[in-house]
Structure formats: C-alpha cells, structure tokens
Amino acid sequence: MQTVQITESPQPTPASPSGFAFSGLQKGILLVIILGVLYLRLALRRRKRDLVCPHCGKRNPHHLTHCRSCSAPLFRG
C-alpha cells in the first residue's frame, strides 16, 4: 500500500476587483484631505452669513441685531 502525502500550495492573493488597493498611509492622507475640504466648506458657508457693520466694518454673527463693537444696528439685506 502506498501512502500519498498531500501538500497545500499557497494560494495567490486575488487582485482587487476595481484595480485600486490603498495602503494604510494613503487611506489616512485621503481621509485628512476629505475632512479638510469639508471643514473649509462649512467655514466659508458660516462666514457668508455673517453681517458686516456699516459703521465700523466688523463682522458679526448672523443672529445679532446690533454690532458687538460699536452697537450700531445691523441691517439685513
């Protein structure tokens, strides 16, 4: 009787279906870039709603009715 030894050959790793395979560093850099763009969009949107005082030229949050610096009325327009 003859004994047969079965040896398993290592399976090759399958290729990525999309062709892209990011490393950990690349994923981290991509995440930082995306978060930076989102932060800039939110900051610009918030700044766009600020009211500028006609008297002293200072920026004020959109919910105020009078300027923080000089107490002049802020007009919405």
Q: Describe it for me?
A:
The chain has one helix at 24-48, and strands spanning 51-52, 59-60. The chain has 77 residues and is mostly helical. It has a two-stranded antiparallel sheet. The protein is rod-shaped.
Summarize the structure.
Helices cover 32% and strands 5% of the residues. By secondary structure, the chain is mainly alpha-helical.
Q: What do the pLDDT scores average to?
A: 85
Given the C-alpha coordinates, what overall shape results? Answer: rod-shaped
Strand count? 2
- Treating each run of at least 4 consecutive H or I residues as one helix, how many helices? 1
Order of helices and strands: HEE
- Mind summarizing the main beta sheet? 2 strands, antiparallel
Percentage of residues assigned to helices: 25-40%
Report the β-strand fraction as a percent range.
5-15%
Question: What Rg, in angstroms, do the CA atoms define?
Answer: 30 Å
Q: Output the structural class.
A: mainly alpha
Low-confidence stretches: none
Order of strands, main sheet, comes to 1-2
Distance between the amino and carboxyl termini = 98 Å
